[in-house]
Amino acid sequence: MQRINSKVRPIGIHDCQKGCSMVWETVIGLEIHSQLKTKSKIFSGASTAFGATPNSQACAVDLGLPGVLPVLNKEVVKMAVTFGLAIDAKINKRSIFARKNYFYPDLPKGYQISQFELPIVGEGEIEISTGDGKVKKVGITRAHLEEDAGKSIHDLYDDYTAVDLNRAGTPLLEIVSDPDMSSAKEAVAYAKKIHALVQYIGICDGNMQEGSFRCDANVSIRKQGAEKLGTRAELKNINSFKFLEKAINLEVERQQDILEEGGSVVQETRLYDAVKNETRSMRSKEEANDYRYFPDPDLLPVDIDDELLEQIRSNLPELPTEKKQRFINDLGLSDYDAEVLTSQKAVADYFEAMLDVGADSKLSANWVMGELSAVLKKNQTDIENCPVSAQAFAELVMRIADDTISGKIAKDVFKAMWQGEGSADEIINSKGLKQMTDSGAIEGIIEKIIANNSAQVEQYKGGNTKLLGFFVGQVMKATQGKANPKQVNQLLNEKLS
Amino acid sequence: MSLSEQQVKEIAYLARLSVDDGEVEQTTAELNNILDLMADLAKIDTQGVSPMSHPLNMSQRLREDEVSEIDQSQEFQAIAPQTGKNHFLVPTVIE
Predict the structure, then answer these.
(1) Chain B residues within an 8 Å CB radius of A159
(2) Which structural domain range is residue B18 located in?
(3) pTM (2 decimals)?
(4) Which among A59, A149, A322, B90 is most buried, taking Cβ atoms within 10 Å?
(5) What is the pLDDT, as a whole number, of residue B53?
(6) Can you give chain A as a three-state secondary structure string?
(7) Could you state, in order of their start, the residue ranges of all structural domains in chain A?
């Protein structure tokens, strides 16, 4: 396995006081909590919809009132197995639920129902690109089912903490990686890969702002080549990929400073503060870090029979890697283009919707990855919130393909579409942007330009062929960019020879 | 294996059980008796016997993913010690 140094500081090389230099190696493992996209909770029939009135979706089971019993949601089991199959993991045909005991106001029962000894999904792996064109395999230790806790709100009252238990009992799939990543960049690449996968297979909406997809990072460093792992810190409260990278880099830097000053890293949970851009020690739950797991007597072992397994396997949607391969094989896209277009489900869906309308695949790929993503980025939005639909964008691309407009004009048309000025055809017609294809008219313009620029014509004929660009520019200026550049070039070559 | 009085105090704290100093000695002795019984059980040869996680030899029944609960928050909040703005209120928890 290839090791890449953290880029926190120049290749992680430091001069310690004694004048020697130390090279540190970063080791990262991620725990990803992926909220499963079910209608009801994992153990109760309460709704999981986001944003409801506080506590309106917390039923007696979620509140842990006496006399209630949890009953497992079938969809949750199916979703976990779907994930397991997607990463080619071992599916444990018998898994058990356990109680993880701790006290916190947003955990009404005093324990979280989770899985400990026998998780539903065992070992698997996933491939990530490390950025330099290399592919690295990241092991997945396990993925287990558990219920989410409620939310504590600290700023609603001065003298109280307010508790909203709507989230309590929401199904989570916790995906635990092996400590296989060796830089913040790799950790982000892995997290993005899982993020895309859970959306592809339809088990999670991936909404990080709403907390549907959360990452905790276990970070430690050790001297390059050392066998033993260093003491790790667990980073929590990371709700974007950007923060994941920042938090890890900050933590690596902090641990390097401690170790190089001769100190030792304490195993603890640290909270990432995006505002202050720092990690800080959380309430020291280390003394209470004994969760005393035991099998939950309220729940029987979960058995997955072959019939269910086969049913899930046969309904498995196209996976990102399969889609990528299909884009390469059937559409003739390059490996790079196929990778970019399939890295997010929403982008792949948009692209495929364009093809459905009849747009050319390569031209569509170029325009999605080029102009569209540039404008989305500039407007700080994403493809899911794009004001121009895939069908409308396809129409624009088709007008380039059939020579109605040039690529340059298309950018202006796209700007107008973005502003809501109408469809591509409407804008082309109302603004009179249709490309001039009447060669007689273009010829007339060219003749005029040649007549007015005799000095340049002399130079061009004298061998300064770079001046062709000057003539093209003049023609474009005279036609307000509406002449077909291909045609202009061709005609100019004829007239100037 | 046997527990010390200190360990019993720690376990009681984790479970938020109040065990008075006067009760520690007796509680420790009782717990150690249970552990001795476990140690006897552990002597039994269980080679080839698969571990049980539940006394019933059955599988978990699964329910369909349907919302069946209605909003009963008013009733639930009525039995809580303190509520406000649809929330349950507890003494301030400092993160």
Answers:
(1) 92
(2) 5-42
(3) 0.83
(4) A59
(5) 85
(6) CCCCCCCCCHHHEEECCCCCEEEEEEEEEEEEEEECCCCECCCCCCECCCCCCCCCCCCHHHHCCCCCCCCEEHHHHHHHHHHHHHCCCCECCEECCEEEECCCCCCCCCEEEECCCCCCECCEEEEEECCCCCEEEEEEEEEEEEECCCEEECCCCCCEEEEECCCCCCEEEEEEECCCECCHHHHHHHHHHHHHHHHHCCCCCCCCCCCCEEEEEEEEEEECCCCCCCCCEEEEEECCHHHHHHHHHHHHHHHHHHHHCCCCCCCEEEEEECCCCEEEECCCCCCCCCCCCEECCCCCCEECCHHHHHHHHHCCCCCHHHHHHHHHHHHCCCHHHHHHHHCCHHHHHHHHHHHHHCCCHHHHHHHHHHHHHHHHHHCCCCHHHCCCCHHHHHHHHHHHHCCCCCHHHHHHHHHHHHCCCCCHHHHHHHCCCCCECCHHHHHHHHHHHHHHCHHHHHHHHCCCHHHHHHHHHHHHHHCCCCECHHHHHHHHHHHHC
(7) 10-308, 318-430, 439-496
